[in-house]
Fold:
Amino acid sequence: MTGRTVLSATALAGALALTGCGSGSGPDSGSGASGAELSVSSPYMPQPVSPDMAAGFLTVSNRGGAQDTLTSVSSDVADRVTMHSTVGGAMREKTSFAIPAHGRLVFRSGGNHLMFEGLRRSPKQGQHVTLKLTFAKSEPLTVEMPVKSATYNPSTGH
Structure:
């Protein structure tokens, strides 16, 4: 073991230590490319026909490189907002929905949807309802959801 062997080992250890520091590309680096990048589009609530319940629809898009999970929804217009999936005509309440990396979570009539239960007021067409979407990893998003006619269907435009 000469001084040359010790020097090589020291150089190798130093290089390995630097490789793990400050690269900015690891899963915990905080860069947008490695995390979820969430946004909401096409929110709407058909004007409620029931005095205490309403439905809501929207799309959550994730342009980021990591999955996130929608864990809850709240609104000042209702005592609680629940999330539901509809499969084969059967509606089931869900506690969360995954939002895949580079993907979307769609809430639409006949599929996944939000239920506003215990309405504190009856939203009317032309008004807006404020929602707070809470996620497992990302910061919450506040959404202004317009109230449309009771028969509104975005695929037909009314």
The first helix runs from residue 3 to 19. The helical segments are 3-19.
